[in-house]
């Protein structure tokens, strides 16, 4: 099974960025753990702070992988382009947020990703990515 993880702006700073909200683990270290935990999955990982690069990355993997775990970070709340891109590809997308966006500022309650996503995992910390992987594996087993 092939899965892509795509992270948006400022998620390259996980580990040091607002640790009270996002924790102290870097994504690189978490990603290593994830790859060890799921040896049967072929992972691809991409992070960018640039909206168009995220769209390019989604288009690039979107007709190839079995699923995408997308944390579009701040672009979640602003990007019509990323929302449209998800509608244009074949691969199902699970939207991930580390923090509980609904317990934060009002502008974080809106998502341009959710209407196009297969599902959403919000507020469970980095573990949200693992839960997303589990969900894709389970869906494949039962299909
Ligand atoms: C985030 C939540 C967004 O509101 C925020 O802009 C982020 C990270 C999360 O994972 O909790 O950068 O997507």
- Cα radius of gyration in angstroms: 14 Å
Structural class by secondary-structure content: alpha/beta
Tally of helical runs: 5
Net shape: globular
Bound molecules: 1,3,4-trihydroxy-5-OXO-cyclohexanecarboxylic acid
* Secondary structure: number of strands: 5
Q: Please report the distance between the alpha carbons of the first and last residues.
A: 13 Å
Task: Report mean pLDDT, rounded to a whole number.
Answer: 97
Write out the strand line-up for the largest beta sheet, numbering strands in chain order: 2-1-3-4-5
The parts where pLDDT drops under 50 for at least 5 residues are: none
Helix content: 25-40%
Strand content: 15-25%
List the secondary-structure elements in sequence, H or E. EHHEHEHEEH
Give a short account of the largest sheet. Answer: 5 strands, parallel
Describe the 3D structure:
It is built from five helices and five strands, in the order βααβαβαββα. It has 143 residues and is α/β, with parallel strands linked by helices. The chain has a five-stranded parallel beta sheet, with helices on both faces. Strand 3, helix 4 and strand 4 (93-97) form a beta-alpha-beta unit. The longest helix is centred in the C-terminal third of the chain and has 15 residues, at 127-141. The protein starts with a strand and ends with a helix. The model has no long low-confidence stretch (mean pLDDT 97). The site of 1,3,4-trihydroxy-5-OXO-cyclohexanecarboxylic acid has 10 residues, from loops.
């Amino acid at each position: 099974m092939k899965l892509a993880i795509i992270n948006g702006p400022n998620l390259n700073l996980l580990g040091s960025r607002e640790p009270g909200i996002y924790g102290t683990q870097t994504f690189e270290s978490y990603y290593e753990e994830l790859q060890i935990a799921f040896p049967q999955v072929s992972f691809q990982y991409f992070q960018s702070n640039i909206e168009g690069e995220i769209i390019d990355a989604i288009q690039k993997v979107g007709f190839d992988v079995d699923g995408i775990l997308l944390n579009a970070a701040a672009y979640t709340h602003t990007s019509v382009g990323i929302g449209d891109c998800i509608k244009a590809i074949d691969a199902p997308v699970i939207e991930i947020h580390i923090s509980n966006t609904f317990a934060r500022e009002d502008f974080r309650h809106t998502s341009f990703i959710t209407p196009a996503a297969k599902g959403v995992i919000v507020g469970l910390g980095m573990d949200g990515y693992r839960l997303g992987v589990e969900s894709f594996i389970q869906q494949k087993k039962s299909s």
